[in-house]
Design brief:
GO terms for molecular function: methylmalonate-semialdehyde dehydrogenase (acylating, NAD) activity. One of its GO terms (biological process) is thymine catabolic process. Malonate and methylmalonate semialdehyde dehydrogenase involved in the catabolism of valine, thymine, and compounds catabolized by way of beta-alanine, including uracil and cytidine. By secondary structure, the protein is an alpha/beta fold. The radius of gyration is 25 Å and the shape is globular. The strands form 7 sheets. The protein has a 7-stranded mixed sheet, sandwiched between helices. The chain has a 6-stranded mixed sheet with strand order 11-10-9-12-13-23, sandwiched between helices. The protein is 39% helix and 22% strand. It starts with a helix and ends in a 17-residue tail after the last strand. Bound molecules: nicotinamide-adenine-dinucleotide (NAD). The site of nicotinamide-adenine-dinucleotide has 29 residues, from helix 9 and helix 10.
């Protein structure tokens, strides 16, 4: 809205490291503790998805700027990695408070650039904030192991140590939460961090960087660059960068995993999804239908954990008309990120029509008063879908629910396990045995039982699997600490003077 835009613009020079440039604010780089204007001649426009107005510009950072950012990380690493863990923890205690104090401001930036509703944008910040709060447990999370008296006077102990400069490459759909999955965990472990936010939604990440500086993070511990392929290749290739965290599409994620790994880096890559909601006939109908609709259409379906596919089993097949009726006029569904995304979603709906499915609720012609140029697609439900159809095989990433039918739970499990993605799934049932069977037999990383979007809280880890993940250790939780640390094992022997070896020992000790 105009209010949001004017508020944001007013605060820009003070808070976000932006300044006015050819009538729209330009996004700065954050290098060595300073918000600097890029010297790049190559800039991308940032649009408000609700209107398609250009609301800002973001640079494709030059090689020189990217090198300066990594050098800054490398320099800062020397002192940051030796800073006491308690001092690092204190910075993140202050950071979580500053995020809370600025949650409305962060949410406005998300709504402006990404399009999700303000309430949903606050949720985006809140879920990232929970990860920051969890990083404050670093003093327990980073504990090593010890075993005394392995032989006489000999003890072994391990340290978890940082690995160096780490980098994060983020997607557009969670401008706060996903960057906050990355640098706080990496930095609290003693690493320094190079962040490349999505070029479509850089504003929120810049404010997050400013707040971290205000919390006391020393210059160079976090650097932020912008760009697309060149910036990504730079991160994959620069020898000082030891680990890459990526979240986004399969096309980018598989490429980054391969290129980064080939260069000897650790890579964790969270990618696309097709999440199934399996509805048993014994489920609580009212609850289930409401949950399905919320999880399919919330955030306009632009969530990697959106429940984009329903499988109705047995008599639950009769619930389809009621599912369609759940759509309420005036539902709080924001626009898609771009006109191209809208075009793609509409054409995927059309493939359903052409391949024999039935569009039971059609959001393609939706018009939002006052926002006629926005990238809106209304909630859409496609019935009669089979697994060979394009609208089933592709990740749609829009407010579209495709509905399949199955005779039995076994048939549903077969469908889910034949799909290449393994991000999330949910079963709706009042039968514990069915829930247990489903949870144990589906090959999917995150399973909800009567929970439509089972994203684990940060004391656990985000455990997508199969086609939705590449790497060995997942994001946040214990797995996140493991990703951002390496182990050193020390075996020491302190003998009393009279126990000195009398001669050299050349055989393996047993
Ligand atoms: P995207 O892959 O287009 O962009 C992600 C990042 O990669 C951006 O920073 C972008 O600059 C860069 N990039 C884009 N294309 C690239 C290419 N060809 N080569 C190298 N780098 C490239 O993803 P997006 O559209 O921003 O995000 C949506 C996707 O992210 C969906 O597929 C969604 O399922 C997925 N996602 C997954 C998770 C998860 O945890 N599994 C979470 C959120 C989003």
């Amino acid at each position: 809205s105009t209010l949001v835009r004017s508020l944001v613009k007013k605060r820009v020079p003070l808070q976000m490291g932006r300044m006015c440039y050819s009538s729209v604010p330009s996004t700065k780089l954050f290098i060595d503790g300073k918000f600097v204007e890029s010297k790049s001649s190559d800039w991308l426009d940032i649009h408000n998805p609700a209107t398609n107005e250009v609301i800002g510009r973001v640079p494709k950072a030059t090689q020189e700027e990217m090198l300066a950012a990594v050098d800054s990380c490398s320099q800062a690493y020397k002192t940051w990695s030796e800073t006491s863990v308690l001092a690092r923890q204190q910075i993140f205690f202050r950071y979580q408070q500053l995020i809370k104090d600025n949650i409305k401001e962060l949410a406005k930036l998300i709504t402006l650039e990404q399009g999700k509703t303000l309430a949903d944008a606050e949720g985006d910040v809140f879920r990232g904030l929970q990860v920051v709060e969890h990083t404050c447990s670093v003093t327990s999370l980073m504990l090593g192991e010890t075993l005394p008296s392995l032989t006489k006077d000999m003890d072994t102990y391990t340290y978890r140590l940082p690995i160096g400069v780490c980098a994060g490459i983020a997607p557009f759909n969670f401008p706060a939460m996903i960057p906050l999955w990355m640098f706080p965990m990496g930095m609290v472990c003693g690493n320094t961090y190079l962040l490349k936010p999505s070029e479509r939604v850089p504003g929120c990440a810049m404010l997050l960087a400013k707040l971290l500086q205000d919390a006391g993070a020393p210059d160079g511990t976090l650097n932020v660059i912008h760009g697309q392929h060149d910036a990504v290749n730079f991160i994959c290739d620069h020898p000082a960068i030891k680990a890459i965290s990526f979240v986004g599409s399969n096309q980018a994620g598989e490429y980054i995993y391969e290129r980064g790994s080939k260069n000897g880096k650790r890579v964790q890559s969270n990618m696309g999804a097709k999440n199934h909601g399996v509805v048993m006939p014994d489920a609580n109908k009212e609850n289930t239908l409401n949950q399905l609709v919320g999880a399919a259409f919330g955030a306009a379906g632009q969530r990697c954990m959106a429940l984009s596919t329903a499988i109705l089993i047995g008599e639950a097949r009769d619930w389809l008309p009621e599912l369609v009726e759940r759509d309420q006029p005036g539902a709080d569904v924001g626009p898609l990120i771009s006109p191209q995304a809208k075009e793609r979603v509409n054409s995927l709906i059309q493939t359903g029509v052409e391949e024999g499915a039935k569009v039971l609720l059609d959001g393609r012609d939706v018009k939002v008063k006052g926002y006629e140029n926005g990238n809106f697609v209304g909630p859409t439900i496609i019935g009669n879908v089979t697994t060979d159809m394009t609208c089933y095989k592709e990740e749609i990433f829009g407010p579209v629910l495709v509905v399949l039918e199955a005779e039995s739970l076994d048939d549903a499990i077969e469908i889910v396990n034949s799909n290449p993605y393994g991000n999330g799934t949910a079963i709706f049932t009042t039968n514990g045995a069915a829930a247990r069977k489903y949870s144990h037999e589906v090959d999917v990383g995150q399973i909800g039982v009567n929970v439509p979007i089972p994203v684990p809280l940060p004391m656990f880890s985000f455990t997508g699997s199969r086609g939705s993940f590449r790497g060995d250790t997942n994001f946040y939780g214990k797995q996140g600490i493991q990703f951002y640390t390496q182990i050193k094992t020390i075996t020491s022997q302190w003998k009393a003077e009279d126990a000195t070896l009398k001669s050299p020992a050349v055989t393996m000790p047993t």
